[in-house]
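Record NagC family transcriptional regulator, 416 aa.
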Amino acid sequence: MTSLKSINQDDLRSHNLSVIIDTLLRAPSPMSRANLAKTTGLTKATISLLAGMLLEHGVVRELEPESAQPAYGRPSTPLTIASGSWAGIGLQINTDGYGCMALDLAGQVVASRWVDDDMRQTDADDIFAKLNRVSQAVERKLRQRGYGVVGSGLALPGLVTDDMQLLMARNLGWEHLNLGSYELVQRLDLMPGNEAKMAALAQIPGYATQEQPRSGAGSRALEACELTPTDSFIYISTDIGIGGAVVHKGTVEVGDHGFAGELGHVSVDVNGPACRCGRRGCLETYAGRRALVEAAGIAQGDEAVNPKAVEELYRRWQAGDPKAVDAIDRALDALVSVMASAINLADVGTVMLGGFWANFDGSLTARLQRRLSHQILARDRIHPRVLLPRVADKPALQGAAEVGLRNFIDNPLAYF
Ligand SMILES: [Zn+2]
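=>
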């Protein structure tokens, strides 16, 4: 009886610690203990005790007391998430290379390594061995700086099952890999997942790192500020392949098997070009990186997946080259059609366009948004927004690190 009671108390304490961390992560500014008590519904005594534990273990830090003296009692001391103690490791294997990033709870990138590589016809064993070495270098740096590693994620451009199988990653030419057999996966107790879903996680404010006040008046920063931690949005990840994720009230909807959100394989023309998935007219065959480069007549076949080719496409499009303009127009038609279908299906009014499309002209989102608003069935009520990603550079890598950090946030007591 005694041991059962103490286990439950530990669970409760860990849960309450988790609630406090989550509250601070999502808060737009530091919070006093009194404020935390009000927001979480925990008593002031509980908050004081738990805040003491979080301070002791380097999860939070105290800022200078607020200068304005309250009418009664002591001035309050704001608490915020601390940098320097706990880190998650994100790993990614993509069509343009592989790499590793360590991220702490305060949102600071502690270390990162990326290896650009030609990933055509690669051997999975070889790439996992190379990624293992890259990760070990990052882990050494974390140890030197006194960080505790709390978990790690691995983003892959394909279908990943709950039981660690990579069913297929067509743009790498890999299929039916038992991910659990790799030393890297075993050593780090890695959580593998689909890259688009991990990239979507990185876009959720306060998901696993402190929300940073975003400075700069660039359009990207302004648009990004419109998203809150509990918003719903559809994320589209664009590369050679196109992936996607539906985020509902701050949670990625994965479906019954973990495969939900494959927007790249929504067909817009049953008589359209053949897709690598076996269907015809998929979004990927119009708006994927390879498809666009080929349609614009810049390169064909293997040469079309060279990242330099899409830079050439961008230059030609800006210069008004008719084939480039036509290819982009057709891709935009397909994008608008799939966005509208996704909004009709999921009843989510915000779409975030990530990947290489996010580097296109800044007016693109406004153009997409205008066209989209005419294609939504519930257009009287849903006013679609098309946003650029908050995290545009390697978002899946960051999301994978956040998957690791969530282990800690969900059960902090397990690490103390
Ligand atoms: Zn397809």
